[in-house]
């Protein structure tokens, strides 16, 4: 994974969106299934005492057993198969034998797979045992922000509609959304155009078209939206040290509306 994926400063360059055909979108369902399965299996293993390196190993085993390749491992030099971001880590936490989960923590797990040249990307934030009520509320609001963003991914709407849906939900609850790191297009490459900010104004930005495939991924902070880069050059933390939640799905925009691709049959609610 890149150190600064889809940074907002990149918005000034020309945008070259790669629209996918219905056949290609159908092909992306398999990598979406593998990515979703890996994420669920890792989430089921989250408990006090487990290390993030052990969670990483679970994801890699699942992805390879299903005929895929871990998309993150080696991407830009990233050493893990998952991003494992604990508490105030927002994204890009490196799995480690030294990081052991404790009761009351939260952990954001980001998994990606490659199958037949297509990439699937998704993330979820899990509680470790019982968490404080305000932390549980952060997770609930963060998840709902994702669903609101997905529901806004409809033909003829605009990128600003997605960002506005996420931002308004988060801020109405008293939380903030990260602005330096955003969602992105996805397909044969992990990060394709366009950038998908988690903030914005209705009816502004690039028009959404059938054939776009987007990774919509709100990063919602309990306190300030400001971030700080970790000393390892990868992890991103909240500047005030308060918790952050990260939720992500890969979604295709079709004539009939948004279709989630990172899904397992029987384990997904519709948009």
Q: Which key phrases capture this entry?
A:
five-stranded antiparallel sheet, 4 helices, globular, disordered N terminus, 271 residues, four-stranded antiparallel sheet, single chain, alpha+beta
Short description:
This protein has 271 residues and is an alpha+beta fold.
Structural class by SSE content: alpha+beta
Overall shape: it is globular
Q: Roughly how many Å apart are the termini?
A: 27 Å
**What proportion of the residues is helical, as a percent range?**
25-40%
| Average of pLDDT | 94
Determine the number of helices (DSSP H or I, runs of at least 4 residues).
4
Strand order of the largest sheet: 8-7-9-14-15
Roughly what fraction of the amino acids lie in strands?
Answer: 15-25%
Number of strands: 15
Q: Unreliable runs, pLDDT <50, ≥5 residues? A: 1-11
Order of helices and strands: HHEEEEEHHEEEEEEEEEE
Describe the main β-sheet briefly: 5 strands, antiparallel
Query: Rg to the nearest angstrom?
Result: 17 Å
């Amino acid at each position: 994974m890149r150190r600064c994926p889809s940074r907002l400063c990149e918005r000034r360059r020309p945008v070259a969106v790669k629209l996918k055909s219905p056949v290609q979108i159908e092909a992306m369902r398999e990598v979406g299934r593998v990515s979703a399965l890996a994420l669920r299996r890792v989430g089921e293993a989250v408990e006090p005492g487990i290390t993030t390196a052990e969670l990483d190993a679970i994801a890699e085993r699942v992805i390879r057993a299903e005929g895929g390749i871990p998309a993150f491992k080696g991407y830009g030099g990233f050493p893990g198969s998952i991003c494992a971001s604990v508490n105030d880590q927002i994204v890009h936490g490196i799995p480690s034998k030294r990081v052991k989960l404790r009761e009351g923590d939260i952990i954001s797990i980001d998994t990606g797979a490659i199958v037949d040249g297509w990439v699937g990307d998704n993330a979820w934030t899990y509680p470790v045992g019982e968490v404080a009520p305000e932390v549980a509320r952060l997770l609930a609001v963060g998840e709902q922000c994702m669903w609101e963003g997905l529901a806004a991914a409809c033909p003829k709407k605009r990128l600003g509609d997605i960002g506005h849906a996420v931002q308004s939900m988060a801020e109405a609850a008293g939380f903030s959304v990260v602005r330096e790191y955003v969602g992105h297009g996805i397909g044969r490459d992990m990060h394709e155009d366009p950038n998908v900010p988690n903030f914005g104004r209705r009816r502004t930005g690039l028009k959404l078209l059938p054939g776009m495939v987007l990774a919509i991924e709100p990063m919602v902070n309990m306190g300030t939206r400001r971030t700080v880069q970790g000393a390892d050059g990868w992890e991103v933390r909240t500047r005030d040290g308060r918790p952050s939640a990260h939720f992500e799905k890969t979604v295709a925009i079709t004539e009939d509306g948004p279709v989630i691709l990172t899904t397992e049959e029987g384990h997904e609610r519709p948009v």
